[in-house]
Amino acid sequence: MTDTATPPAGVHEDGSAQRLQIDTIRTLSMDAVQKANSGHPGTPMALAPVGWTVWTQFLRYDPAHADWPNRDRFVLSVGHASMLLYSLLHLAGVEEIDRDGKKSGNPAVSLEDIRQFRQLGSKTPGHPEYRHTTGVETTTGPLGAGCGNSVGMAIAERWLAARYNKPGFTLFDHDVYTLCGDGDMMEGVSAEAASLAGHLKLSNLCWIYDANQISIEGATDLAFDEDVGKRFQAYGWNVIHVDDANDVEALKRALQAFRDENERPTFIVVHSVIGWGSPRAGSEKAHGEPLGAENVAKTKEAYGWPVDKDFYVPEGVKEAFTAAVADRGATARDAWVATFDRYRSEHADLAAELDLMLKDELPADWDSEIPTFDADEKGVASRDAGGKVLNAIVKKVPWLLGGSADLAPSTKTDIKGAASFEAGNYGGSNFHFGVREHAMGAVVNGMALSHLRSYGSTFLVFLDYMRAPVRLSAIMEIGAVWVFTHDSIGVGEDGPTHQPIEHLATMRAIPGLDTIRPCDANEVAEAWRAVMRDPSRPAALVLSRQALPTLDRSKYAPASGLEKGGYVLAGGEGTPDVILIATGSEVSLAVQAYEQLTADGVTARVVSMPSWYRYELQDAAYKESVLPKAVRARVAIEMAGEIGWDRYVGTDGATITMSTFGASAPIAKLQDKYGFTVDHVVKVAKEVMKG
After folding, report:
1. What is the pTM of this model?
2. Quick one: 488 and 573 in the same domain?
3. SS3 annotation, 356-406
4. Angle, nearest 10°, between helix axes 17-36 and 82-92?
5. Are residues 120 and 247 in the same domain?
6. Residue 443 counted as domain residue
7. What is the CATH number of the domain that holds 127?
8. Residue-wise pLDDT tens digits, 40-63
9. Which of 111, 485, 500, 640 reaches 20 to 30 Å from 212, CA-CA?
10. Which residue in the list 437, 523, 638, 642 is annotated as catalytic?
11. Would you say residue 210 lies in a domain?
12. Backbone φ and ψ of 570, nearest 5°
């Protein structure tokens, strides 16, 4: 590594159009970070030749139609290098698409947007945000997340191609390019995702690894010195080395080798000097903070750039860059549109299906086969009911697909009679993510970003391994479905390692995540209905291992009340003396206690509260009808941690919840130990009534 402004070998101050475009990317990145006094200039500067080569020479992307379904995807997993992406979107002339899918008439990223880098309300936030900036394919920043998302995007392309491509009609054949760095390679999610991609032989996937050997704390050899290329060879990837990130011809050869590869994903190891041209090149300082005015000037001088000009785009640079991308992309899109028009005539049913999917809409009769469950005291586990409902929906919505982290027989999320998605059959609907919860979450998000209604499932306690992608699904407002089973101490003999306690509170704390814990089979059916109707937010379905009584809905309120998050299940007439509030398996316990209290002459009410998120969306009048403010005697019952329940029980109420981890024992013994019995609920209810 060097601490001078001397160009690395192979770099020439030749003033060519190519070099002007590359240096424009570099100087825009420098200037934006410097003006914001915040950000990471080094990686965008070093990877400018890589970004230029991918976009102008290979990427099939129409800037006038950034939502073209068969566009190549460009994922910036090194999200801290966001100015690289913003510069590319600006120079490519990408047109903005609003939240309604309409063109706004504005550029996706204008020069003024770049000037407002990292400022409140700008389209150029510190890390790229999906939905916020047209052209950003996924929200990145947490390292490794973009890598995992890109595997999901590559999987989606393979599934779409298998279902919709027909002889003479190629609708899907796009590629996925991902820029990643040393931090991505250190995060475990990338290893999980890369292992899965290699197993699935996703030859439409290319990761470009910036091996600059710098991280925030300093040189990577402080903690990371493995041969990453050999690791990826072991995963089954095609590994190519490019010795100098500035060697555009070598980059072209590597990317063409990727395009020619039909059996394996490709991993291109690119060696760069972070912040090339900066007097602090090769330093972690060039990575994690602005260069400083003096160093910016010296760097521009090294580039042969006007030192006195900020945010300078030389004449003809933007036009040439845009043309290089658009000429190829527009031609490809026009051909695709013509093909799809012919496809509508010969494959009308599939075309109609595809139209619905791309609009995130559902067939008119999509829920017509969802079962209704008869009252049954013995009942059925909500995971079993969930499997039946899922299979009923899939018959009408074939793009609802997913799998589990090696637990489908337990989570009941396998699609009956459907094939597995594997390298030999990309048309399969059952996905096997292996014991890779974090990658599963990232991959499911990538699939959802491709308009599939994707789901991933595991035991609730293993949310610990995948909270990051669940959180990102909420930030991105995508319709990923998270199916979590084995939802409480009801897991029984498996003991505290498998009994979730704090996990419901963790999910409820994520803004925009609809966490639903149904109380019986019919609430499960309504939960799936509610989730499928709204593709703009993720949902977590929290289901039991043990059987739950199927409530008699002729005696108690209909399960459709779930749509509002919380509803009066029993005791809706008049003003109650006490209100019992519960979720999931504890609702039937509350009902039993209600019957006992009623027999004792107490006017009680049961509120089923499957989704706090949905309940909080209701107006004040509805909330008052469910939980009247005048009734301060309230008891919340849930086999999970107490945190959060104070908002519903107030200072005068009580909770029957978990304040410790569980234990290994049969469920009946655990219910006795921790107070989840009718007698205990009745006792606590009468105590809170005394005030």
Report:
1. 0.95
2. no
3. HHHCCCCCCCCCCCCCCCCCEEEEEEHHHHHHHHHHHHHCCCCCEEEEECC
4. 130
5. yes
6. yes
7. 3.40.50.970
8. 888 999 999 999 999 999 999 999
9. 111
10. 437
11. yes
12. -150, 145
